[in-house]
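Case study B.
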Amino acid sequence: MTMFSSRNWREYPHRYRREASKFTKSGKTYHPKRLVDPETGDTEQTTVILPDEGKIVTYTVIRVAPSQWGDLSPYGLAIVELTDGTKVFGQLTDCDVDKIEIGMEVRLEFRRIQSEGHHGVLSYGHKFVPKWF
Amino acid sequence: MRTVCIVGVGMSQWGEVWKQSLRDIHTDAALKAIKNSGVDHIDSMYVGCMSGGMFVGQEHLASLLTDYMGMRGLPATRVESACASGGLAVRSAYIEVASGISDIVMASGVEKMTDVDGDEATYALAAAADQEFEVFHGATFPGLYAMMAHVHIAKYGTTREMLSAISVKNHNNGSMNPVAQYPFKVTMDQVANSVMVADPLHILDCSPITDGAAAAILCTEEIAKSLGKPYVKIIGTSVGTDTIQLAQRADLTTIKAATIAANGAFKMAGKTINDIEFCEVHDCFTIAELMVLESIGKYKPGKAGEAILAGETALDGAFPVNTSGGLKSKGHPVGATGVAQVIEVYKQLTGQAEGDRQLKSSPKIGMTQNMGGSGGSSVVHIMEVA
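Model:
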């Protein structure tokens, strides 16, 4: 089942430019962008660019991987709290999977996420890289 | 609202059922439930199925399945809430009977998961997570629960032994369930030494891929009485939702949707967690059972693990959990699981659980907690002996 490429480029603002919604009343930021603040129901917002550094909130190491990531297996996945408090999900790279831990500092780099598979096109976005590199 | 009862149940054999199709296993469970209840007809049907489309390329299931049951024309509805689809089917049937629209309604669930290879099954299941911002990055379901497990371990000191003990307990219970996919016992060492799937979860922390169907007949108390068979009353039903994307949750050590659903069901039933004598919970992964027991208020945050190690949730413990074997041993055909949980509570309350897993305490009130995805939805039912 191949998806149309519109499914991919539609997300460019989130994946390529890390665009997020910052809601006026709550001051909270959400990635990806959304129309309504889930906490307050507020719709008034500005578009902000997420910071590119943060700390690992939690992680796992995928050792049984879907086939499109088979060549990367085992790979780390993490939820990272960025310096502005927003949390984002992503894959770790350039990283010894046995050394991943909660609290580890990472930066977001622009990388290829999928080469084929269900999206059917080259897909890019952020990956987390440990800051010691 | 009218009182709603369960008067009959049926299940297909769960497992890798190569010779039977989705429509076969559903028909098997549905006809068994109708026969078991003694009703001469049903007024309508709700069928829970997560992804007939991705697992067997078949949607439009409500019509297809009524046709194959020999009931063309029957009002039928398919409901979906990922792995909580079955629970939602029971709740939908409950509402139709309680409201007075129908007197006898079947709630069923089905999933045929082994017609695709493991890779496709993983992809179909992952559709219960956020496709664009989790699955896109390589997330799998064991991976998402593993991420919750790591936070729970870091915050509360949850141990490998606590997680392993859940798998050991559920396999022990499932070894006495004739329809279970994996009716054998496992040891603490076998769990701890099994293949790592997504750190810290091993393969024996994970529920399997299963073909299976389950069905229950819901009706008014007047009809239930007239049938002269054992029945139970549903006294609480509730559903809760939460963001399906883990990164958007404030606290990863608790399942908020389960808390919402449990509290809703307690309020409706006029009961508290202390009135519940046993429970079927959604142990898609060992960590899920532990977190749910805390989320529904049975144990304080971080305290479920110790209780599990102390045997409190065992068959002969103070609060038996997953007497059926749970998803871990009985199997997890995602759309059918929620219905099967209700069936186990029905059987325990009416003294019909097979073998030695029938609770000796003659319980009066039991509860089910069914969960969608990584906790994006949860359905809770409370049942009482008639």
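Chain B has a mean pLDDT of 97. The remaining cases will be described in the next quarterly update.
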